[in-house]
Amino acid sequence: MDLQKAFETNRETWNQKVDVHAQSDFYNLKAFKEGATSLNRYELDALGDVKGKNILHLQCHFGQDTLSLARMGAKCVGVDLSNKGIALAQQLNNELDLDAQFVCCNVLDTSKHIKEQFDIVFTSYGVIGWLPDLQPWALMIAERLKPGGFFYMVEFHPIAWMFDYTVNPPVMKYGYNQEEAIYEEYEGTYAEGDTPQMTSKEYGWNHGLSEVIQSLKDAGLQLEFFREHNGSPYNVFPNLVKNTEGLYELPHGLYPLVYEVKFVKG
């Protein structure tokens, strides 16, 4: 297929999402500007004390997590495909008097634009599904890490992406390791309420856990941990229930919604 067409379609959709998401309760930009962090428990626990660390944040949207890390004392660079997302991230950085930097590019092209190596490479929640092949992604991550540095990702579980959520109830439709692109066109975004403000047109790819882990190992990184969790910080799938820890999970608990991986560069 024409990957450039797919990437451009996704970029146009994410450009539209920026305006919608910046106004949404989901991203709560007002609270963020007043000092609230956009980071969740999983990533805060895994990243630890980031003061003085150099962090590369991949697929940063409009930069809230990047800037949250900057507030914690890290020196951050955020990367995203959406030029509108990067423009808003830079605006927020200036408004909040922080020192993060932002680069607009396809995440697979990161090493063409950034030559620095980092203590930490970080990415989270709904990121690898936009990539047709994880091998160049993993190699880029290894290139951008300093020796002794680590890569951390918290991501939605691949089982969750086997369902078609454009119908109600959702139907299991897509392969766990499906190589063919999945194209979906639907009204609204995950961050909107009951009144959609845009049409999302998206190309995505499903990646199973073995593909994720093996691609990073093949890039020369060493697995430190892999964890699966029933609870998601985000109520982005249908019919989830809030548990006693304030996370959202399936009422029947048939499969986890989130997983974490941490890899170290030797």
UniProtKB/TrEMBL annotation:
GO molecular function: S-adenosylmethionine-dependent methyltransferase activity
Record keywords, A-Z: Methyltransferase, Transferase
Keyword DNA-binding included in the entry's annotation: no
Pfam families membership: Methyltransf_11 (PF08241)
InterPro entries: Methyltransf_11
Coiled coil: none
Protein name: Class I SAM-dependent methyltransferase
Record-annotated Methyltransferase type domain positions: 57-152
Keyword Metal-binding: no
GO terms under biological process: methylation
Natural source organism: Halomarinibacterium sedimenti
